[in-house]
Amino acid sequence: MGQTTISPFQQTEDKLKLYFRQMYASENDNSIDSLNSLIIEEFSSVLKNPKSFYCAWDSLNMIGQIHTEDKKLNIYSWYVRNSKGKFSYFGYIQYNIGTRKKPEVSFYPLINKSKGMKNPEMLNLSPENWLGCVYYKTYVFTYKRQSYYTLLGYDFNNDFSSKKIIEVLLFDKEGVPVFGGDFHLELQNVKRMILEYSAQLVISIKFDEKLQMIVLDHLAPFEPMFTGNYRFYGPDGSYDGLKFQKGSFLLQKDVDARNLQ
């Protein structure tokens, strides 16, 4: 019997799978950094190839992968945790400016600049100035032929609190990515929603087909004395909704989501 030929993309996937497993098993910072450097080198090289756009990377289930239904956008993101429990984030955007049959890929590394970023919920950001997280879900909304790629991201933050981020990614007329949408909340307008809560808990953010809105757990302090101390925040049993209207998200309080899909 002849030998089975392994494609270059499969070879790269096998390498990446090995590097990620070794990195997440390691407790040595030098080893972690070296393996992450290998991951960056391999991943960035292959993602610049337009033929990689439709690769599923099925075995890389330890990272965040976004593949939009319109076949225009892929986002890959992952975390690195050092021996002191500090997290950092890395990622890439592939944006198809060609056609479905013949993709032409714009490639953007995501550079985490969240450390020291003041009031990130108020800022328009870019791939070079990125609020790091792992993206795990996307919902695509459209208005006036503009696609609003609405991303759900997770930030491990620290031992006491976690964060979930509701982010909007837009592409301007030149195809340049911009992170930042319009969220009209109860007290202010922001560019993204950042939900911080106890690291011991889990919160839900989902698109509800019946309500036609993103529905999320309403967070509140366990006791009034903990107001503003987000390590003591969690779901209070009620839900809020984000309704997409004319390019913006409008917050609706206390939505009826007892049959949340």
Question: Can you describe this structure?
Answer:
The chain is 14% helix and 40% strand. It is mainly beta. The protein has a domain at 115-252. The strands form 3 sheets. The protein has a 6-stranded mixed beta sheet, with no helix packed on it. Strands 5, 6, 7, 8 and 11 form a 5-stranded antiparallel beta sheet that branches. A hairpin with a 5-residue loop joins β7 and β8.
In short:
The protein has 2 helices and 15 strands. The protein is mainly beta and 261 residues long. It has a domain at 115-252.
N to C succession of SSEs: HHEEEEEEEEEEEEEEE
Strand order of the largest sheet: 10-9-15-14-13-12
Described by the principal axes of the CA atoms, the overall outline is globular
- Poorly predicted parts: none
Largest sheet: 6 strands, mixed
| DSSP summary, beta strand count | 15
Summary keywords:
single chain; 261 residues; mainly beta; 6-stranded mixed sheet; 5-stranded antiparallel sheet; 2 helices
Write the layout of secondary structure elements.
Layout: H1 8-25, H2 29-47, E1 64-67, E2 73-81, E3 87-96, E4 105-111, E5 134-143, E6 146-155, E7 161-171, E8 177-179, E9 183-184, E10 189-190, E11 193-198, E12 205-208, E13 213-221, E14 233-245, E15 248-252
Parallel strand pairs: 9-15
Antiparallel strand pairs: 1-2, 2-3, 3-4, 5-6, 6-7, 7-8, 7-11, 9-10, 12-13, 13-14, 14-15
